[in-house]
Amino acid sequence: MRNTLTLFLLTCFFFIHAQDRSIPADEVISTNHEITVKGKSVPFKATTGTQPVWNDEEKAIAAVHFTYYERTDIKNKASRPLLISFNGGPGSASVWMHLAYTGPKILKVDDEGFPVQPYGVKDNPNSILDMADIVFVNPVNTGYSRILDTENTERDFFFGVQEDISYLAEWINTFVTRMNRWESPKYLIGESYGTTRVSGLALELQNRQWMYLNGVILVSPTELGIHSGRGRRDGPLGAALRVPYFTAAAWYHKKLPQDLQSKDLLEVLEEVETYSIQELMPILVKGGFVSEMEKKEAARMMARYSGISEKAILQYNLDVPASFFWKELLREEGFTVGRLDSRYKGIDRTEGGDRPDFNSELTSWLHAFTPAINYYYKNVLKYETDMKYNMFGPVHPWNRDGNNTGENLRQAMAQNPYLHTMIQSGYYDGATKYFDAKYTMWQIDPSGKMKDRLSFKGYRSGHMMYLRNEDLISSNDHLREFIQKTLPGNKPAKY
């Protein structure tokens, strides 16, 4: 009877204990691997786990999950670049660039980036691990990262433009110290909202952590806070800037007039960029006081460059919302086009309406990424936890006050002659449009004295341009070229 009671109590204890789901604040696991990159063998160690975030009383209040890839046949780490990688959202995990762009494994997708079954991962023969070590970071509440004491820790510590930058800069300092990488050339790469994050981190790391960077890579950049509002993309400016994106999407779906359709995409985009800035914008600036003749001529040209009707354009007074374009471009064929990548098609409940029912590209990506990342940690990196991997985590409301991140990046570049910035954008991205990104680049440094340290690369895909195999190859090569160019060797940091 006593043994039966003991067994019952033990069973109850373990049952109750098993209901608690948590993640340790400070615990990692390492495994050794090898891949072939550009035809050469690259041995590396993968370290994944958590590192704490501490509050002002030095108490661990959150566990930030990361995955660090370190090439193991390199003796001199002082000259070995370190790439620190963030995705965006805000609230998005680092899974996207981790399992599709720079890491040693990528999704099993077709050459255009569409999901295929069985799901899983394969070696990435284009990973930049041959020339740089990489750490992928999941900010709090994304991926496996969590607040440790939700009852006593204020969410306001983490969830805002400045809050996010502040705690992550401290976290990076600890990581670089633990991994003994203070001598190494350092780079930040961010995608989407991650570009806001890394632009702010560039100055925060310099001014608060005394850590100086060699490069910042902005992948599909959002609107950055730039001094005196120069970076804003709304009003007549925004309406003009989005037209080249309309052209790219229409060209892809073969909706342009034949004389344009027969040209290469880049040739057409050069033409429409010139039109948008030099002719369309002055008309839009006049608003309701533009002449009827000018308005109708602008509608005719916009229809020619966008694949939608003059009537629809006039109904919006020349200021066509991107959301309407996603619904309108293929309306007669019964499809919508994707927001983040307009190569993707969707099907709505009705063909009527002014915006799609869902983002067709995002559902496609989640289709492939979610099973892959869950499989990868458990089976390849041997990291096991009952925590759910948050592809998108609960981080809202997000405090957007004080977003001066574009100006922060300019200041960081001005203070650090070593620091360069490269922008990478997909032509078919309808959310963070490529021409918006070019405009942001033009406005970061109004003096023009640092324009030789700012560069732009475009790709024939969307928000995650690296999903398309041809662009995966070229975008990683562009990263290699950028890193190689920005390694100054023994050249002093001075003007």
From TrEMBL:
SUPFAM superfamilies: alpha/beta-Hydrolases (SSF53474). Pfam families: Peptidase_S10. One of its GO terms (biological process) is proteolysis. Keywords: Carboxypeptidase, Hydrolase, Protease, Signal. Residues 1-18 form the signal peptide. GO terms for molecular function: serine-type carboxypeptidase activity. It comes from the Bacteria. InterPro entries: AB_hydrolase_fold, Peptidase_S10. The keyword Flavoprotein does not apply. This is Carboxypeptidase C (Cathepsin A). The lineage of its organism: Bacteria, Pseudomonadati, Bacteroidota, Cytophagia, Cytophagales.
